[in-house]
Design the sequence.
């Protein structure tokens, strides 16, 4: 029960963020110097006569008041109606849903790669502090923070696909197509996570319960796996939750480079077409992904460390 | 003699800092002096010499239009650095105004401003910048405004936190009791104390903004051809990945070096000043995307 209360409390805190973000998305269209009706006509290759503009304005509901438009838009969103794409004339929700699996696979596999590499690396560099492995992970962290993602993607493409022919150049048909894009996205995360984990481990190793475990004669390996890791990994979980949005943002460029027909690449195409409904919906979905990511991180942390749920109930 | 010895001592005490400073000066100077040191006109199209390898006339070879790669890189330094400085300075000004305002007044105003910031921060900054550019149309001016809007929010939040912290210090209370006006309190007591942490954040931020500029120019939304910009150059060079990878690799090395040096400098500064705990989470985290 306490656990549920904690999650609901967190969920309630997210609601204003989502509403605020939806308002930002709605304002986006208002910031346009071009009348959306004219943009619609130019995308559809219709001559913008006064009659045509008036017809489109009525169709898009642009003739109504600001708040009525916002309310109408929100109402549609709640019913998963993201509007109709200017370009393809298909429902945006359908277009995005068709591409979601590719982007989601990419995001999940990037997170997976990041964890699989950074957890052993973080543990090793904490155990061998200031030794070779620690220096290697430090250099990796530095590279991760300084290499532009799109450039890394091309370097991987050139050396591993063109030169060595190990991976396909583009597409998203089999799992092997996902290796390079996922690694591109994961690279910066590996850097951050392994350093965060190292710092967390070094801090947790000073805790009294570690001393107790040592006194019981447990091996360092057992202490780390069974006792320390669940505490030390908390900052990494928080970071991963916050990074979910970033992963989607990175996917925009990476999907385009590797020609993957995902949501990100679709968003970028819509940007070139000025397909406003798609842009608006995509931005909102990103905000929701961010919120969901944070929420998931909170829930996992509460699971790892039940003390967190007690605090909120006592009103902190 | 004494002076030289002193400089030598300072350098040996702060090795990383000194090396970074020297490297940054070299990059800034090469950008400033580009018209003097560039071997060729960066925009001179010479189809007779297209896609040539390094030679005496073209030290790094030429691109698909026969333009000198080295000259374009040097001029590109100017473009990236000046745009980054423009964006970061504007963000700093806007962020300081909003942050001081919200942090100093506190209460409901502060709550409202922070809720707005939260809503904007929920959207990945690059996505929001891309959407703004999508609506305004591609170009370096639109890109600059979009990045300023998006980044200012981070600054506002960060500065607001600092101001709240400073406001609780005893010397502020003392100044208030002494009858110092709010404006004077701001300019004389609060803003000077913001500067050291801000300086470090700005160092790191310039690197990240250069990365954002290059990413946006790479996808064709930022600096437009034929203006030499590193990201845009990678975009132009990507079609020659198989035959002439040089066109894609070289500009990337420039971006990497620039960002790497700024990151090193920022880290060295924050370690020296013991200010790393003042850095907000978003500043510490590697800004990968």
Sequence:
């Amino acid at each position: 029960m306490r656990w549920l209360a904690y999650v609901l409390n967190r969920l309630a805190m997210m609601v204003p963020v989502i509403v605020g973000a939806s308002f930002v998305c709605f304002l986006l269209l208002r910031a346009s110097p071009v009348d959306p009706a004219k943009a619609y006509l130019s995308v559809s290759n219709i001559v913008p006569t006064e009659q045509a503009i008036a017809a489109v304005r009525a169709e898009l509901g642009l003739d109504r008041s600001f708040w009525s438009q916002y309310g109408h838009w929100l109402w549609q969103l709640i019913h998963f109606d993201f509007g109709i794409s200017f370009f393809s004339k298909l429902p945006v929700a359908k277009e995005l849903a068709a591409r979601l699996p590719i982007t989601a696979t990419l995001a999940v596999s990037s997170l997976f790669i990041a964890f699989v590499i950074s957890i052993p690396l973080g543990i090793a560099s904490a155990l061998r502090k200031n030794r070779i492995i620690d220096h290697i992970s430090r250099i990796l962290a530095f590279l991760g923070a300084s290499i532009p993602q799109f450039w890394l993607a091309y370097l991987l493409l050139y050396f591993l696909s063109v030169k060595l022919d190990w991976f396909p150049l583009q597409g998203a048909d089999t799992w092997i197509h996902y290796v390079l894009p996922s690694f591109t996205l994961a690279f910066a995360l590996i850097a951050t996570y392994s350093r965060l984990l190292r710092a967390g481990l070094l801090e947790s190793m000073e805790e009294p319960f570690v001393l107790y475990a040592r006194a019981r004669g447990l091996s360092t390996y057992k202490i780390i796996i069974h006792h320390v890791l669940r505490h030390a990994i908390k900052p990494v979980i928080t970071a991963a939750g916050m990074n979910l949005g970033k992963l989607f943002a990175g996917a925009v460029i990476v999907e385009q480079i590797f020609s993957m027909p995902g949501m990100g690449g679709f968003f970028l195409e819509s940007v070139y077409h000025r397909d406003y409904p798609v842009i608006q919906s995509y931005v909102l979905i990103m905000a929701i992904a961010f919120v969901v990511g944070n929420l998931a991180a909170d829930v996992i942390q509460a699971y790892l460390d039940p003390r967190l749920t007690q605090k909120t109930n006592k009103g902190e | 003699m004494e002076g030289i010895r002193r400089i030598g001592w300072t350098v040996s005490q702060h090795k990383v800092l000194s090396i970074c400073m020297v490297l940054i000066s070299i990059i800034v100077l090469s950008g400033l002096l580009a018209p003097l040191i560039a071997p060729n006109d960066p925009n001179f199209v010479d189809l007779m010499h297209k896609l040539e390898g390094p030679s005496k006339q073209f030290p790094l070879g030429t691109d698909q239009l026969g333009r000198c790669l080295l000259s374009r890189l040097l001029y590109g330094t100017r473009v990236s650095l000046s745009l980054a400085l423009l964006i970061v300075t504007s963000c700093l000004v806007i962020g300081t105004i909003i942050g001081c305002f919200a942090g100093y007044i506190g209460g409901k105003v502060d709550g409202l401003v922070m809720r707005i910031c939260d809503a904007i921060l929920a959207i990945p900054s690059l996505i929001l910048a891309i959407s703004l550019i999508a609506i305004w149309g591609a170009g370096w001016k639109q890109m600059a405004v979009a990045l300023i809007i998006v980044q200012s929010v981070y600054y506002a939040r960060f500065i607001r936190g600092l101001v709240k912290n400073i406001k609780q210090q005893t010397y502020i209370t003392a100044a208030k009791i002494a009858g110092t006006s709010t404006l004077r309190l701001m300019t004389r007591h609060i803003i000077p104390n913001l500067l050291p942490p801000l300086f470090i954040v700005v160092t790191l931020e310039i690197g990240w903004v250069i990365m954002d500029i290059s990413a946006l120019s790479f996808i064709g939304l930022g600096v437009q051809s034929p203006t030499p910009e590193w990201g845009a150059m990678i975009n132009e060079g990507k079609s020659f990945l198989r035959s002439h990878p040089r066109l894609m690799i070289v500009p990337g090395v420039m971006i990497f070096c620039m960002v790497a040096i700024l990151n090193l400098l920022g880290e060295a500064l924050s370690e020296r000043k013991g200010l790393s705990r003042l850095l907000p989470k978003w500043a510490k985290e590697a800004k990968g995307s």
Summary: Chain A touches chain B through 63 residues (CB under 8 Å). Residues 312-316 of chain A have pLDDT under 50 and may be disordered. Chain A is about 80% helix and 0% strand. The longest helix of chain A spans residues 92-127.
